[in-house]
């Protein structure tokens, strides 16, 4: 079993219709602009993430960016808010703390700090984050591969996905290629491919991954944050690598076969986030079927909208995905592009 059928639903929405996508974007912008109000949650599900999305969609929206106190993370705290506001001082303060955090992942740790530093061209911070990630990437004798350890809210684990584990950390290091030697970059790809090969669940040509090597079967996901879509989104921008290409194509096929998520339309664990994997594969392969699949998921996501709030879980994230399908732009907001 590579996915849980009850978490997915048949593809609906019909063929790609750019006019319908533009109408949906306009509706979302109007609704989100009217509802925008100060809420905690950082860029993930707070008003800062919504304001960023609205600005990207051409609507006027202020980034209020209140102080998030002890929360310094990319997802819900100071790092992400500072990044959305392009506030270098705020980002540097938060990034240095995230680099030292035992979370050691994208949303709350060093990888998020590295992505922010790359986007804002903060060389000193980027070098510190690169050093931290390489120094904590260790060999697991049981897994027979290198993997990172995360500690979040007192729980330790060795995760594989984009949001909280191996794929997200590798993504950040790939984004920071200018701060590493060619030898490091080759080693990076070899380590990632080895770990993914050893942890992949396979069924014919399809592939998926549990959240962690020791996760239970009922924890299996097909989402951006955990599972095949996030693996593709994290690594599809890597240099050409035969074994990696096979992994990415198998993961992409799994996302298509599984179908849209019942959970909703959003980016983190919804249809739009999964659809971004198809846009990534289109850019990597130039095979038009991936763009067609991305746009079919977009039409389904339009039907799933329920007025949810926030960049990562709400409708504004869906609007950014619809725009990406129109523009054929695979860049993930506030990770690939500022």
What is the compact description of this entry?
The chain is 51% helix and 5% strand. The chain has 14 helices and 6 strands.
Folded structure, characterized:
It is a single chain. With 338 residues, the chain is mainly α. Helices cover 51% and strands 5% of the residues. It is built from 14 helices and six strands. It has helices at 18-35, 42-45, 47-56, 78-84, 88-100, 110-119, 123-135, 166-175, 182-199, 228-235, 242-258, 271-285, 288-304, 315-327, and strands spanning 138-140, 145-147, 150-152, 155-157, 201-203, 206-208. Strands 1-2 form a two-stranded antiparallel sheet. Strand 5 (201-203) and strand 6 (206-208) form a beta hairpin. Helix 13 (288-304) runs antiparallel to helix 14. It is globular, with a radius of gyration of 19 Å. The N and C termini lie far apart (38 Å).
Low-confidence stretches: none
Q: How much of the residues is beta strand, in percent?
A: 5-15%
Summing up helix and strand content along with how strands pair, one would put the structural category as mainly alpha
H-E order: HHHHHHHEEEEHHEEHHHHH
- Supply Rg: 19 Å
- Counting DSSP H or I runs of 4 or more residues, the number of helices is 14
Q: How can the largest sheet be summarized? A: 2 strands, antiparallel
Strand order of the largest sheet: 1-2
Strands, total number:
6
Give the overall average pLDDT: 96
* Global geometry: globular
Secondary structure: helix percent: 40-55%
